[in-house]
Each structure stands twice: as C-alpha cells, then as structure tokens.
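Give me the fold.
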Amino acid sequence: MKVAVFALVLICLGSAWSCVGSQPLDSSSLNDIQKFSRRYAESTIASDISKIVDSMVQKNFVNFLLNQREKKSEPATDDPDRRIFNDLLKKEFVMWIQRKGEAFK
C-alpha cells in the first residue's frame, strides 16, 4: 500500500514537473515564482517568530506559577500584629506548661 501511494505521488510530481518544464519561462512567471518564494519565506519567518513567542510565554507563565507558589509558602513575619500575637501565644503556652509542671510536683 505504501509503495502504491509513493508511486502515485512520484507520478503526480513527475507530471507537474513536465508541465512546468514544457512551458517557456517568461517574465510574468518569474515574477510569480519570486512572489511565491517571498511569501513562503515571510510565512516561515512568521511561523518561527510565533514559536519563539509561544515558548517565551510558556516560560513566563511557569515562572509566574513558581513565584506564586513561593509567596504562598513564605511565612508572613513582617506583620507586627501577627508577631505580637505569636509572642503572646508562646508566653501563654510556657505559663501553661509551668502550671502543669507545678501540679505534678
């Protein structure tokens, strides 16, 4: 099956090349070829640029997610109210342990 498809493609390409070769190349057909090659080059460049921009956007998104994850995992020790509250909790806990220790003596 693959051989048949390959042979069919070769026959089609051969007939297309024979049609192109049999016609004389005038200035209009040369212009058409140049326009086609220029459009092909422009689309290739645009495709490459699009791939590069997509990869940059993906990297930026991953970095954004990693930064958000780091921000969530960092404790908020800069808040003075929270620091005071934590200090009070520590003092209360130490006093509770001391009272329990005195009760067992």
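Residues 78-105 form one domain.
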